[in-house]
Amino acid sequence: MITRILLLCVLCLGSAQSVRSQDTPSPVTPTAPAAPTADSLRTLIEQSRAAWDVPGLAVAVVHQGQVVLSAGFGLREQGQPEPVDGGTVFAIASNTKAFTAAAIAMLQESGKLQWQDHVQQHLPWLNVGDSWVSHELRIDDLLCHRSGLGTFSGDLLWWGTPYTPQQVLQRARHLPLKNRFRAEYGYSNLMFLAAGEVIRSASGQTWQQFIGERILQPLQMQRTVLSVKDLTALGNAARPHKTTLTGNQPIDWFNWDTMAAAGGVISCSDDMAKWLQLQLRRGQLPGGERLFSEASSHRMWTPHTIIPVSRAAQTRTPSTHFRSCGLGWMLADYRGRMTVGHGGGYDGMYSQVLLVPEEDLGIVVLTNSMTGIGSALTMTIADLYLSEQPGQAGQWLQQGLEQDRSGRTEFYERIKKAVEPVATGTQPSHEPAAYVGQFECPLYGRASVTLENGGLVLQLHPFPELQADLVHLHYDTWKIVWRKSFAWFAEGTVQFVPDAAGVFQQLRLDVPNDDLWFDELQLRRIP
Fold this sequence. Notes:
Layout: H1 4-7, H2 38-52, E1 56-63, E2 66-74, E3 90-91, H3 97-109, H4 119-122, H5 131-136, H6 139-142, H7 165-171, H8 189-203, H9 207-219, H10 231-234, E4 241-243, E5 248-250, H11 260-263, E6 266-267, H12 269-280, H13 294-300, E7 305-306, H14 311-316, E8 323-325, E9 330-334, E10 337-346, E11 349-356, E12 361-367, H15 373-386, H16 394-418, E13 437-441, E14 445-452, E15 455-460, E16 467-474, E17 477-482, E18 492-498, E19 504-510, E20 523-526
Antiparallel strand pairs: 1-2, 1-12, 3-6, 4-5, 7-8, 8-9, 9-10, 10-11, 11-12, 13-14, 13-20, 14-15, 15-16, 16-17, 17-18, 18-19, 19-20
Helix pairs in contact: 3-8, 7-8, 15-16
């Protein structure tokens, strides 16, 4: 299954193309590729949408200061007649991080903070799993995934819980650091929550107020909102879909207000085209005023954290030699140019942004599915503008589709394997009542196991919808069968761990997925 990990990087698929020489002059001046037309792009996008079985998507392409295309394709909801158009809104998820970085840049320029400020100057209550790192953590560290936290570590704290951003971050002190501080890449949503709280502290406004008043209003992004609570009044919203082996299942919008600074923007291709143009103008508004300076743009697009490029990735895309994190952006080289981009993964919606500043080119793809079509389309469209052999551009879509389908099959095979019994004919070691109890995790909160009609039921209390019937699997391990379908995962297991007296003191959860780490929950029995 294509996951958020793949979406976070610009170059996650692959094609066998070589970088153009920068050193040896060509005996013949190459002819620049003919720019694609809006009509040719529409045909490409619609054919791709159908091939990938995506219910609906919207695409914006800006080039040399002009909006070449901003249009919708397919349907807002599978099986319903309403079409997607340029004003249809989608969750852009982690593409929000660039908005948060821009806000920090604006506060830096106004003298409210400095990039190198200790975070504890603004958030004295913030601590991570190491006291020295907690003290040393600087504002720019929050924006480039080098805090020492592991990728997606702690995301269960904000997903569906009632915790405020400050409460999430205060609980995060229980998370062990998995990487070397400032030396290794670990994608962290929690650190962007911290950046949102820094914005609150430095500006006196909530993240939502600052982004709305200082960025969305000047850009006239009038169909962009910062909470799912605003969707009813806004109208013309796509519906999320969980993409499975057999198709697309419509699901409800999920409230991401707690992690808004890391992923809360909801927008449309018409508005995102304005955001792309602002970025390509290095912070300058159409009238000449500036939201942020060219120097700040340069800083946000400067490598801060190295992302290793595997040998397999080098083989797939020989023209990419380096990948790194800027501030709120992912950076890479491609065909001799720097690319600036990001992906976004929301419950039932994926998005992708790609900028090629040297070509004054920007592309955004917003979808109501959980597939990698956004990455494939942005790279395909980029190739149409960059390549002397545009016919090769289709490799992104074909290879991407194959990878998407095989990845999804492997994902569900992993779940199937995880819930297969290791032995048949076994029985629980105790009577059902022995498994009943209250359990507490310092990081997450309380869980309980109760008896209902003779069966065991697991409840994770911070998110009441995380309720599951337990079906005996083998020995003292039970299969978790959630009573509700979720976008990121399906079934899993819970192991009851006894002490020397045979009293079950601990729950160990294994819920296979690539986004929410249930194994971080240290649930121990409480009186």
